[in-house]
Write a structure and sequence with these properties.
Blueprint (H helix, E strand, L loop, with lengths): L6 H18 L7 E6 L2 E5 L8 E5 L4 E4 L5 H14 L4 E5 L11 H7 L4 E5 H10 L3 H18 L11 H21 L9 E3 L3 E4 L4 E5 L11 E4 L4 E5 L14 H13 L4 E4 L9 H23 L8 H4 L9 H5 L6 H19 L3
Parallel strand pairs: 4-5, 5-6, 6-7, 11-12
Antiparallel strand pairs: 1-2, 2-3, 3-4, 8-9, 9-10, 10-11
Helix pairs in contact: 1-5, 2-3, 5-6, 7-8, 8-11
């Protein structure tokens, strides 16, 4: 099942995800490097640096999962990799098409000309379609930040911004000019190798399994799994502390998360946020998705098929507030972020239901 999105909505995906990423990293001023095993490192980028990057070093070659967003952040990561090893980065995996995980591809290609950039076949299609528009999206993001600060309200005008949001958006607006300048000087690099079935790469005494476990956040979500080290790099199938549900395939996402949980992994690298050391959050995401889908199906059974309904007709039949405390914990600043995520998840579930 392919959920069709309007061109305008697709162009705004990166903005929405950027807002979530910013909210998830409030108070984090610097990139954070975590050693997951000998020769395996995770780089958590602060704010708009982009999604998490994972570096896997073998005896012969180096594999990188996701290249973040800002070229400057990618260059900093490459300088860090060269401190760890003199081996070349031979492979980059883009876990999905959202450009906060792949706009750094060009920087890696310039640094390592023999590089192979890997993505699922569906991810490459979307990268080719939306990647070159990154500069335009940042310009639109700047306008959205300015409007929210001017009005003091969320993008859709439905609620007042919190003090923490105002502070973050003000900081983001100040940074946008620099981001736009960076992006204007670099050409987007898409994938050079695509796959639709699982395959393994031997880096030299280190095996990396590249897997497609099913649709979720996008149509082509890929994961990288290190069976010996029991590490899985999940991309935005798992984003912490609030999931990225502004687009996607919730019905299939439930099953994809179950497939992810079946992997023998003690360490999970999310697309955003700190390292997870067990599968508790994966199951929480699954339960959230399943609840939204089940409640929507029940509402439609009581009324009519989705094709005869509007979102306003059914929105009240889906209540995700029982999950709120489990996601935000004691961080009250995350409350509005959860509310926005839940509202958009209900919308995506309804859009998916209209195609049945």
């Amino acid at each position: 099942m392919q959920v069709k999105r309007s061109a305008t909505r697709s162009l705004l995906i990166a903005i929405s995800i950027g807002l979530i990423a910013a909210a998830a990293t409030w108070g984090q001023d610097e990139r954070k490097v975590t050693k997951l095993a000998d020769g395996v490192y995770e780089i958590e980028h602060a704010g708009y640096g982009g999604g998490n990057t994972t570096v896997i070093i073998g005896d012969r070659q180096v594999f990188v999962a996701d290249t973040c967003f800002l070229p400057s952040a990618a260059r900093e990561d490459i300088a860090q990799i060269r401190q760890w090893t003199d081996r070349a980065v031979s492979f980059v995996l883009n876990t999905h098409f959202h450009n906060d995980h792949n706009f750094g591809n060009r920087v890696y290609m310039d640094a390592f000309p023999a590089l192979t950039v890997i993505a699922h076949i569906e991810t490459k299609k979307d990268m080719d379609l939306f990647g070159p528009g990154s500069l335009m999206r940042e310009e639109r993001a700047k306008a959205i930040f300015q409007k929210m600060l001017d009005t003091g309200k969320s993008e859709d005008g439905s609620r007042n911004l919190t003090a923490a949001e105002k502070k973050e958006f003000k900081n983001s607006l100040a940074r946008e000019s620099g981001y736009i300048d960076e992006l204007s000087k670099i050409k987007f690099q898409s994938a050079t190798l695509t796959f639709d079935h699982d395959f393994n790469i031997d880096l030299g005494n280190r095996e990396v399994q590249v897997k497609f476990l099913g649709k979720g956040n996008t149509a082509g979500d890929a994961v990288a799994y290190l069976p010996k080290e029991r590490i899985v790099i999940a991309g935005d199938l798992v984003a912490y502390p609030i999931p990225n549900t502004y687009d996607g395939y919730p019905i299939e996402w439930v099953h994809t998360l179950e497939n992810l949980a079946q992997l023998d992994a003690a360490t999970i690298v999310p697309g955003h946020g700190p390292i997870l050391r067990d599968k508790t959050y994966v199951y929480l995401l699954r339960d959230l998705m399943k609840s939204a889908v089940d409640q929507m199906n029940e509402k439609l059974r009581q009324t009519a098929p989705a094709m005869f309904m509007t979102l306003d007709d059914v929105r009240g039949g889906v209540d995700l507030t029982p999950f709120k405390q489990r996601f935000i914990g004691n961080d009250k600043d995350l409350g509005p972020v959860f509310d926005d995520m839940a509202s958009n998840l209900i919308k995506v579930v309804f859009e998916e239901a209209t195609l049945r």
